[in-house]
Structure of PUM-HD domain-containing protein:
Amino acid sequence: MPDTLAYLQEVNASFLENLKDGDVETSRMLLWNVLEEIAPRVASAASDRHACEFIEVLVDHMSAQQLRFFLHKMEGYFSHLWTNRYSSHVLQRLLSKVGAIVGNEVKGEADDDDDPDRAADVPPMSSLIVTMCSEVQAEWLTLINDVSASHVMRAVFCALAGRAPVLEKRGKKGKHKALQFQSAQTTNAESVPREFEDTLSEMLELVLGSSDGRLVELMSDAHAGPVLSMAVRVAPTAVQSKVIFKLLKWNDPERSSQRFYDFAADSVGSHFLEAVCHSCDEDVWAAIFERCLQGRLLEFSEHPISNFVVQNFIQRTPTSDLNSRLTLNVPGARIVETLLKFPTDVSEPIWASDNQDAKLALFEKLQGQFGSLVLDRNGSFTVLKCFDVVSVAEKRKKKVKELFSDFMDDQAPKKKRKHDKKDGKKSKKKAKADE
C-alpha cells in the first residue's frame, strides 16, 4: 500500500498541475493510466485513510466512462466498501455524479466516448448501480444503521430516484465531504430506468417488513433514522405513502396519533416528520394534520424538539383552506407562554411566509399581550414583526398607539409618576415662598 500511496500522491500533484495549465487531453490520459494502475487493488486503495483523499480528487474530474470503469472494478467488494469509513466517502462522491449519467442513458444520448477500447466491456451506469445494490441485498437490514454504510445508502436512494445530493465539507478540519440532500423544490429529478424504481421499492419493502418494534428502533437510530427520512423525500408517491403509513402505524388511529407524538419529541424521529411534511401530497398532509396535530399545536409547541415539527407544518401549508384551519389552531391567549419560552418559536414561519391573512390573523390573536411580549428577549421579536404587518396607512393615521394599547398603557403610569414628582417639587417651593 505504501507504493500505491506514493504513486497516487505523485500523480495527484501532476494531475492538478495539468488542470491548472488547461491541458485537458493530458489530464484525461493521466486519469486512465491511474485507473488501470490501481484497478487490481481498487478496494484497498479506496479504503486507505490517506489514499482515499487523492482518489476523491480524481473522481471529481473523471468522465462518465471513467466513472463506470472505476465502479465496475469495485464489484465483489461492495460490502466492505460501504462499511469502511474512507471508501464510503469515495462511493458517496461517485454516486453524486450518477444522476446525469443515467439520465443521458435513459434519453439515449451518446456517452462521452473518450476511450471506447478501455470501456468496451463495461456495462451502463444504471446496470452497475443495480448490480451494486443486489450484491449487498442480504445485508440491507444491517447496513441501514451502520455508521458509514448508512451514508452510502442515502446516496444510493438519491441516485435511484434521480436526485443529486450536495457535497458539503464537515467541520473546520474535515478532509471529507458529507452528503446533504437538496429538496425537490430546488433540484430537478433526472430520468431513471424502471429498474431503479423497482430496486428502491425492493429495498424499502425489505426494511418495512421488519417487526414494528424494530421499525421504532430504526426511527430513533442516529444512522437509520436519516436513511428513512431520505426515503420519504425521494421515493415515488406510491412508495412514499407506504413508508409513511407503515412507520406511523396508520391503520390504528389511536396508535398512529401517539406514534406521531413520540416521533415529534425524538431528536431523530422529528426529522422524519419534517421530511414527511415537506414531501407528501396535500391529501396525506391534511390527513396527518387532522389526526395528529389539530387541536394540539400548543402542546407540541411547548416542547423543545416537537416545536420544530410545528414550525415545518406552518411553513409548508399546501392550500389556503388548510392554512386557515392551521391558523385557527394557534391559540391567542396561551401562545404568549410559548413565545416567551423558546427563542425559535412557532410564529416565526408565519411571519416569514407570504400569507398576509395568516399574519393578520396571528396579529389579532396577540392583541392585548404586547406589553408582556415586548419586555421579553424572545417575545420582542414577535412585537417587531406585528408592527411590520401593520400597513403604512394605519401607521400614518397614528393608530399604532391604539393597536398596541396594552403596551402603551403599561408605559403611561411611569410618565404620570414623573409628572407628579415635578408637581410635588413645585408645590413645595410654593409653600416655602408663602412662608
Remarks:
- Confidence is low (pLDDT under 50) at residues 168-172, 331-344, 412-417.
- Residues 210-225+236-325 form one domain.
- The longest strand covers residues 166-169.
- The first helix runs from residue 2 to 21.
